[in-house]
Amino acid sequence: MEGAAAAAAAIRHRTVEANGISIHVAEAGGECGAAAAVLFLHGFPELWYSWRHQMEHLAGRGFRCLAPDLRGYGDTDAPPEIESYSAFHVVGDLVALLDALGLAKVFVVGHDWGAIIAWYMCLFRPDRVTALVNTSVAFMRHVFIRSGADAIKTTDHFHKAYGPTYYICRFQEPGVAEEEFAPAHARHIIRRTLCNRFTVHKAGKPESEESPPPPPLPLPAWLTEEDVDYFAAAFERTGFTGGINYYRNMDRNWEMAAPWADAKVQVPTKFIVGDDDLTYHYAGIQDYLHKGGLKAEVPLLEDVVVIPGAGHFIQQERAEEVSDLIYNFITKFIPQPN
């Protein structure tokens, strides 16, 4: 076996009971307590498998790598209630998972929704995080936390900025997104989503409104049919509702996070984004990232890395580069022998 197949074969799998649910965790690398642990948090519509390259890279350098399927995904439980997918529930899962595994602190690496959960985790429980590498989604206080007299609800913000057909807006009503993201079409959905790379041009109207339907896209060099098979098989079995429910809690997260209205993210941080990622083209985001806005919110931010030509699924598209950036950052916090 070579490539992704060999990496996946070297990865161990277990189920951990934590926070009232069963959590599937993929692991690689050292199992002993002396090995520094890295917790990888995936996005939508993804799985632990999105981190296969980084797990292989870091496990080979002595780190203990942990990548759970977040609640609602893959082999982790999917509670039926929409309100069970708030950031507070998911951060609770992660803290309980660390407790169950006997880990006091970890490095955290997030992408997409995993990045959002990572920001919340660093706000709520910075005592459990040694350092953070976040990708694609920056900390945006006005989107994540109700703060200030002129605060605008998260979904209202996106509706105003991008209109009712924007994916976050059309995900809100139960049943509507499920028609677009039917389990029977999981293979097509995964292929379409990853091939489009979720660039600034690809998050508007649902495909059903396009005429005629676009032809299947060829796979990019960084994605194999085996990769598509892995994602598709999981979502054919579980459907997409669990992941979609994260979006349906954005306003709830915003309201409930109000006690942290003026809190800073007090964790050493590196932020990585592709210059062809939708999130790098939000209104005003580039000035915010590069002219001190993010640094003001995350005082221990080391730097912002923009990777030319990279889209949204950056840890898969630019696997080696992202792996090196993670490794070079987190090794700064490993005690060196005298």
Automatic annotation (TrEMBL):
Asked if the record carries the keyword Hydrolase, the reply is yes
The reaction(s) annotated as catalysed by this protein in its Swiss-Prot or TrEMBL entry are:
an epoxide + H2O = an ethanediol; (24S)-24,25-epoxycucurbitadienol + H2O = (24R)-24,25-dihydroxycucurbitadienol
SUPFAM superfamilies given in the database record: alpha/beta-Hydrolases
> Sorted alphabetically, which keywords does the UniProt record give?
Hydrolase
Q: Does the keyword Hydrolase apply?
A: yes
Coiled coil ranges: none
Which EC class heads this enzyme's classification? hydrolase
Name the record gives this protein: soluble epoxide hydrolase
Origin species? Oryza glaberrima
